[in-house]
Amino acid sequence: MSAFEEYKFAPAEFSGVVRLFPVPNLVMFPHVMQPLHVFERRYCDLLEDALRSDHFITLAVLAPGWEADYDGRPRLQPFACLGKVAVSQPLDDGTHNLLLVGLRRVRLLNELPPLKNYREATAMVCEDIYPPNQADRRGGLKQELRTRLLRLLPRLPQAREQLEQLLNTSVSLAVLTDVLSYALDLGLSDKETLLSEVNVHRRAELLLGHLATAEEECEASASGLAYFPPAFSHN
Predict the structure, then answer these.
(1) 105, 94 in Cβ contact below 8 A?
(2) Quick one: average pLDDT of 31-52?
(3) Average of per-residue pLDDT across 61-76
(4) What is the pLDDT of residues 132-177, one digit of tens each?
(5) Using CA atoms, how far apart are residues 179 and 27, in angstroms rounded to an integer?
(6) Strands 56-61, 17-23: parallel, antiparallel or unpaired by DSSP?
(7) In sequence order, which ranges of 23-81 are alpha helices (DSSP H)?
(8) pLDDT per residue over 110-137, tens digit each?
(9) DSSP 20
(10) Which residues contact 143 (CB under 8 A, 6 or more apart)?
(11) Once rounded to an integer, what is the mean pLDDT over residues 1-7?
């Protein structure tokens, strides 16, 4: 994870107000990098404002029913991911390509009045929590995830190298669960649940549950490989 060292979150840089980049089908997580193509005028303005100041952009998920009011202010899911622009490339047509690094979970509190052509809200940073006096359990959960994923490697040729690199590093359980939550092709609501879960042990248990369910479906199906392992996300 050394590539992310320069993007460590500095609480003093965070004003408590986030620039919202709402998307319908992508859940961003801390500790991952997401490419984005920015083309709507309001989000080009958002990016320009971010680049002039703290480089922060918050990727939020549109709640069901957003289609009826996409150009307005449709409801958002309460948890989002605060990110920092790592690379931004302006294009000749006025659009931008960028890479966004996930920094922290945030809980959206109150949306601000529409003084700009993009949306803003107050937000609270949600730090990871490890249950006290459960260090042994932490190591056990990490090993359970590692064991299951190593067993999957032959069935994931397209992601084998990335998984092996991840599993051969000394990343924390928190980082491991976030990377897997982002990478595995789980349902949108499942990913939202994982993003909202600040208890790292619980997050690991949820992931293990998803993998166990998928394995059971594999064993119950004559064409099990169609179900298991979960594909890697195309985010």
Answers:
(1) no
(2) 94
(3) 81
(4) 988 889 989 998 998 887 776 666 666 667 777 777 778 899 999 9
(5) 12
(6) parallel
(7) 41-52
(8) 999 999 999 999 999 999 999 998 888 9
(9) E
(10) none
(11) 51
CA distances from 128 to 74, 135, 144, 169 (A): 28, 15, 20, 20
Radius of gyration of the chain (CA): 19
Distance CA 21, CA 35 (A): 13
How would CATH label the architecture of 15-126? Roll (2.30)
CA distance linking residue 174 with residue 57, whole number of Å: 22
Residue 5 half-sphere exposure toward CB, CA atoms < 13 A: 3
Angle 11-173-18 from CA coordinates, rounded to 5°: 30
Buried b (16+ CB within 10 A) or exposed e, 96-125: bebebbbbbbbebeeeeeeeeebbbbebee
Contacts of 146 (CB under 8 A, 6+ apart): 167
Average pLDDT, the chain: 85
77: Cβ contacts below 8 Å, ≥ 6 apart:
60, 61, 62, 63, 192
For 136, the enclosing helix (H) or strand (E) is helix 135-152
Residues in the chain: 235
Residue with tokens 């997580």: 29
Lowest mean pLDDT among 8-17, 44-53, 196-205: 8-17
Helical (H) or strand (E) element with 21: strand 17-23
Q: Are 125 and 12 in contact (CB under 8 A)?
A: no
